[in-house]
Design brief:
It contains six helices and no strands. The chain has helices spanning about 5-75, 80-105, 110-135, 145-235, 250-280, 295-315. α1 packs antiparallel against α2 (about 80-105) and α3 packs antiparallel against α4.
């Protein structure tokens, strides 16, 4: 059975194209929004807190350097507030920020994890040096008066200053790297939103123009042949046989056109037969359209009657 591109299929195809375009727009929008949400979650949930934690880590190192310098240079009792503050920093503040960075680093790159691990190990060694080689020997007012202790502590203190400078450099490199990652992720997020904005605008214009073109095509493919059918039928209603014919189509209008073309051809045949009969040509060929063709059978009967009368008149 030959495929027929019916009117229903034409209309369905038009709406189908619009639905497909709308579905594509919906899918692209969902994908872009999902990707942007993931990037936003990355910035808000991981990158930004990581940068904040690293900066707080840096602040603790700076503070420890200031406090250990006071411990070394300023003669004071063991319960001095600055000394108490340094002990709290080492026993509470530092473990807390270290645990936070260890938790955040689970989502970092391999290189960033290695840097963080190295910094923490270095920091552990630094604070161990503070406690064992500076804070413990200089644990009383009198210990500052002991030249031997002062001499013994001097070298570890100088070493700690060098170590903390190295720590600053490593930590600042890691902070810079995380900030660049945050900036890159943010730029990608804005690019995604810009792409989505442009895509939706272009697709909206495409849907508008496509809808107009589909509507025009569908309307023209239906209304134009219907107007032609109407014109032919009105002409036949006035007794005028149309010269034009309906072009072949595979839809319902095409089927009506075939039927109308056949009707016009049969009417032309009937008209020609009637003319020949009127001229006295009773041998003209004519075949009724069917057994129920009352006009055709009436014409044949009329021809036979006229032929019989002609013979009678001749006799």
């Amino acid at each position: 059975m030959a495929f027929k591109f019916t009117i229903g299929r034409k209309i369905g195809t038009g709406f189908g194209v619009l639905l497909v375009l709308t579905l594509i727009a919906f899918i692209f929008t969902i994908v872009t929004i999902t990707k942007s949400k993931q990037q936003t979650d990355s910035v808000v949930g991981q990158v930004t807190p990581s940068v904040s934690a690293l900066k707080e880590y840096n602040f603790i190192l700076q503070k420890s350097q200031t406090l250990i310098s006071k411990w070394y240079y300023l003669q004071s009792a063991n319960d001095d507030p600055a000394k108490t503050e340094l002990r709290n920093l080492i026993s509470k503040d530092y473990p807390h920020i270290k645990a936070e960075i260890n938790s955040l680093s689970n989502d970092w790159t391999k290189e960033e994890k290695e840097k963080a691990k190295s910094i923490i190990q270095f920091s552990d060694g630094l604070f161990k040096l503070y406690q064992e080689e500076i804070m413990t020997p200089l644990n009383s007012w009198e210990s500052y008066q002991d030249a031997t202790i002062k001499f013994t502590v001097n070298q570890p203190f100088e070493d700690s200053q060098e170590k903390i400078k190295m720590l600053y450099n490593q930590l600042n490199d890691l902070i810079t790297q995380k900030e660049k990652n945050a900036e890159t992720t943010t730029q990608q997020m804005f690019k995604s939103f810009t792409f989505l904005d442009n895509f939706v605008k272009l697709l909206g214009i495409g849907l508008f123009i496509g809808g107009i073109l589909i509507a025009i095509f569908t309307t023209q493919s239906i209304t134009r042949p219907i107007q032609q059918l109407k014109k032919m039928l009105l002409s036949m209603g006035l007794g005028i046989l149309p010269k034009e014919r309906i072009n072949y189509r595979t839809d319902e209008i095409g089927e009506m056109g075939i039927a109308l073309n056949s009707l016009v051809e049969s009417m032309e045949s009937t008209t020609e037969f009637a003319k020949q009969t009127g001229k006295g040509n009773f041998e003209a060929y004519y075949k009724p359209l069917s057994k129920d063709d009352s006009l055709g059978h009436a014409l044949l009967k009329m021809r036979d009657s006229l032929s019989e009368n002609e013979k009678v008149l001749e006799q």
